[in-house]
Task: inverse folding
C-alpha cells in the first residue's frame, strides 16, 4: 500500500463501487435494540432523532435524513447543505417566570449571522398524554435557552420562520394547543417519508448506520402497528467486500483527512496574510481606514476608523464594517462573501435610546426610506447578491467566485476586487452609508461622531 494518501487505484475504486451497489438490498437482524433497552420509548426516539437528523454526526447520512424529515413537515429550505444546523433536546423556555422543556429544537441559518433564520420546535409523544397547557405554553413562549454560537438564547421574533410540530401515534389525540400553532404528525408519517425518500440510496451509507437506522424505523412501525417488515440485506456479503478492499478504503479515508487539513491550512494562511496583501495596494493609514484580522477566520474586518465610535465612553462601541470570512466552509464552496455588517446584538446598537428606537432601528429605517433609492442606484454596477437594508446584520452581500485551481491567489484577487467595488471611489456606496451613519448617530446620541469621515479608501 502506497504511503501517499492521495494515490489510489481508480480502476479498483470503480470496481469496488460497482460490486458494492450490486448487493441484494435486504437486511437480516436479531431482535430490535429498542425492544431491549430500558426506559421510556419516547426518550429513546428523541435521542435517536436528534442523532440522525444532525448532519455533523458520524452516521454518514449527512443532510439526507434531515432534508427528508423537513420535507415531511412541509418545511422547505433551499440549499440546506450550505446552512449551519444546530439541534438540541430538552430545550428550556427562557421567558422569565415560565417553565417547560420541549423535546427537540432544530435551528438553521447562516453561520455568519448572530441568530438562526428558522427553527422547528418538536414535542414527541409515544404513550404519555400531553401535560396541562403544555403545547399552549410552548406556542406562546417568546424565547428559548438554545445555543447558537456566542448566544445562549433564541428569540422567536428574530426567526423568519418557526414551525411547531406535535408527533404522536396515529390513534392518539391531537395537541390541545389553544393557539392553534402546533401541527400534528404521526410516527407513521415519518416512517413513510423516510422510506419513500431514501429507499433507493439507503445502502450507499455506512453499514452500521444502516443497521441502526433500519432498527429505528422498525421500532416506529411496531409503535404504530404497521404491517410492513423491513427488507433484509446480506450484510455479511457487504462486509466481505469491505475486507477485500480494506486497503483502498483506508487510503480514501486518509485522503479525506488530508483534504480537511489542507482546507484548514489555506484558511489560516488567508486569515494571516490578507491584510499585508491589501496594504501593498491600498494606503489604509493615509486614507483613514483600518483593518482587523481576528483569530477566528469568520471575523475579518475593513472599515473607515470613523465608523468605530464610542458614544457612551464604554468598551461597547458603535461599529459598522465590511466583513469577509475565509472559513473552510466558504473555501469548499469556492466563494468569497463580502458584506456590510451592522452588529445586531451589541447593546449600544440595540438599546432603545431615541423615541423607543435603537440605533439599528433608525439606521435600517433610513436605509429603506429616504436613502433607499440612492443606495440602490449606487449598487447597480456592483450587482450585489443580497440587499437586506431593512434588518440588522448583513445589510449588503456580494459573493465572488474563487478559482478551485488556485484558491489562495484567487481569494486575494477577489478580495481586492471587492474592496475596489465597495470601498474606493469607484462607488458612492460607502459615502451614502456614511450619511446614514452620521444622521442616525446624531439622532440617537444627541451629538456628532468624533472626527470626520475620511472619504473612500485610496490606492498608494
Result:
Amino acid at each position: 500500500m502506497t504511503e501517499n494518501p492521495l494515490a489510489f487505484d481508480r480502476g479498483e475504486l470503480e470496481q469496488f463501487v460497482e460490486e458494492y451497489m450490486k448487493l441484494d438490498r435486504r437486511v437480516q437482524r436479531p431482535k430490535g435494540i429498542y425492544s431491549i433497552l430500558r426506559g421510556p420509548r419516547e426518550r429513546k426516539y428523541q435521542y435517536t432523532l436528534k442523532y440522525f437528523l444532525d448532519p455533523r454526526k458520524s452516521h454518514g447520512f449527512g443532510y439526507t435524513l434531515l432534508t427528508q424529515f423537513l420535507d415531511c413537515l412541509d418545511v422547505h429550505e433551499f440549499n440546506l447543505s450550505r446552512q449551519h444546523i444546530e439541534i438540541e433536546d430538552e430545550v428550556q423556555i427562557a421567558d422569565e417566570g415560565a417553565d417547560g422543556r420541549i423535546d427537540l429544537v432544530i435551528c438553521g441559518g447562516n453561520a455568519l449571522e448572530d441568530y438562526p433564520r428558522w427553527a422547528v420546535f418538536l414535542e414527541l409523544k409515544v404513550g404519555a398524554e400531553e401535560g396541562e397547557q403544555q403545547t399552549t405554553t410552548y406556542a406562546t413562549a417568546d424565547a428559548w435557552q438554545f445555543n447558537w454560537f456566542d448566544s445562549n438564547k433564541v428569540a422567536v421574533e428574530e426567526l423568519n420562520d418557526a414551525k411547531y410540530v406535535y408527533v404522536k401515534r396515529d390513534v392518539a389525540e391531537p395537541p390541545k394547543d389553544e393557539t392553534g400553532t402546533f401541527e400534528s404528525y404521526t410516527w407513521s408519517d415519518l416512517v413513510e417519508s423516510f422510506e419513500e425518500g431514501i429507499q433507493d440510496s439507503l445502502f450507499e451509507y455506512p453499514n452500521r448506520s444502516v443497521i441502526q437506522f433500519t432498527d429505528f424505523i422498525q421500532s416506529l412501525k411496531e409503535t404504530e402497528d404497521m404491517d410492513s417488515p423491513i427488507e433484509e440485506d446480506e450484510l455479511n456479503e457487504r462486509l466481505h467486500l469491505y475486507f477485500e478492499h480494506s486497503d483502498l478504503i483506508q487510503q480514501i479515508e486518509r485522503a479525506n483527512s488530508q483534504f480537511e487539513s489542507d482546507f484548514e491550512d489555506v484558511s489560516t494562511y488567508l486569515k494571516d496574510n490578507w491584510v499585508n496583501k491589501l496594504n501593498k495596494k491600498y494606503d489604509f493609514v493615509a486614507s483613514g481606514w483600518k483593518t482587523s484580522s481576528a483569530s477566528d477566520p469568520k471575523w475579518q474586518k475593513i472599515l473607515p476608523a470613523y465608523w468605530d465610535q464610542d458614544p457612551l465612553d464604554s468598551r461597547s462601541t458603535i461599529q459598522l464594517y465590511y466583513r469577509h470570512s475565509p472559513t473552510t466552509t466558504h473555501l469548499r464552496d469556492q466563494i468569497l462573501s463580502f458584506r456590510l455588517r451592522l452588529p445586531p446584538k451589541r447593546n449600544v446598537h440595540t438599546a432603545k435610546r431615541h423615541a423607543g428606537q435603537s440605533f439599528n432601528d433608525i439606521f435600517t429605517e433610513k436605509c429603506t426610506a429616504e436613502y433607499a433609492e440612492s443606495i440602490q442606484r449606487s449598487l447597480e454596477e456592483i450587482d450585489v447578491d443580497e440587499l437586506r437594508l431593512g434588518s440588522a446584520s448583513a445589510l449588503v452581500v456580494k459573493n465572488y467566485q474563487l478559482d478551485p485551481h488556485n484558491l489562495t491567489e484567487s481569494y486575494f484577487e477577489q478580495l481586492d476586487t471587492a474592496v475596489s467595488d465597495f470601498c474606493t471611489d469607484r462607488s458612492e456606496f460607502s459615502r451614502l452609508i456614511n450619511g446614514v451613519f452620521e444622521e442616525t448617530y446624531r439622532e440617537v446620541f444627541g451629538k456628532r461622531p468624533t472626527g470626520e469621515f475620511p472619504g473612500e479608501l485610496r490606492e498608494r
Observations:
- Confidence is low (pLDDT under 50) at residues 24-30, 227-233.
- The radius of gyration is 27 Å.
- The longest strand covers residues 84-92.
